[in-house]
Amino acid sequence: MGIFILLAIYVVLGFMLAWIAGLVAREEVDVKTGVLTLVVSGVLGILASLGIDAVLDEGTGSTVLNAGAQFVILTACIRLFAKLSWKHSLIIAVIYTVVINVIVLGLAACAAG
Q1: How crowded is residue 37: how many other Cβ atoms within 10 Å of its Cβ?
Q2: How far apart are CA 44 and CA 77, in angstroms?
Q3: Which has the closest alpha carbon to 92: 41, 54, 50?
Q4: Is the pLDDT assigned to residue 38 strictly greater than 80?
Q5: pTM recorded for the entire structure
Q6: What φ, ψ does residue 30 adopt, rounded to 5°?
Q7: pLDDT tens for residues 61-85?
């Protein structure tokens, strides 16, 4: 049951990434490309986070470095899988990151409330 919920979440997030990419780049991006981009960037982000945490002590520096690394990885994956320009990939990554962080903050506020 848990795998189906995880799959549904990734499909929704992949659709959202494909929708944002379609708006920004004005090109058709498949949902499967969005899901693939998120899965690969997630795995690479976890590996980068583990590497950064192994080198640096936990703190503000490692948190900022992790966020920057995950942003660069997301941008590169969008460029690689969606075959969009670097400019469009950067814009899409910024918009997607802001939207996801607003959703997370909203859910955290609801959970704390």
Answers
A1: 27
A2: 10
A3: 41
A4: yes
A5: 0.85
A6: -70, 155
A7: 778 888 889 999 999 999 999 999 9
Please give the structure tokens belonging to residue 25. Answer: 């780049």
Encoded tokens for 16: 């959202």
Look up residue 6 and give its two tokens: 């995880």
Residue entry with tokens 């936990």: 58
Nearest to 34 by CA among 51, 20, 24, 46: 20
Q: How many CA atoms lie within 13 A of 82 on its CB side?
A: 38
**What distance in Å separates the CA atoms of residue 113 and residue 89, rounded to the nearest whole number?**
36
Tokens 């969008």: give the residue: 78
Residues present in the chain in total: 113
Token reading at 17: 């990434």
Rounded CA-CA distance 111/57 in Å is 29
